[in-house]
Amino acid sequence: MAAKKKRKKENKLVRYLRETRAEIGKVVWPTRRQTIHLTAIVFGVTVAMSLLLGFLDWVFARLFALLIS
User: I want to staple 34 with a disulfide (CB 3.0 to 4.6 A). Which of 7, 28, 30, 65 is the partner?
Assistant: First the structure.
C-alpha cells in the first residue's frame, strides 16, 4: 500500500525526466568519424543547392528583364 501512495505522489515532471534519461541511455550515438562524414555531406548538399538556386534566380532575373525591356 505504501508503494501505491508513493506512485501517486510522484511528480509528473520527475517521472518525465527519469523516463527521458532512460531513453537517452538506449540511443546508439554515432562515432566521431560518422559525425564528421555526415556533417560534410550536409554542408556539401547545402552549398550545391545554394549554387543551383542562385543560378536559377540569375536566369529568371535575366528572362524577366528581357520580357520587361
Answer: 30
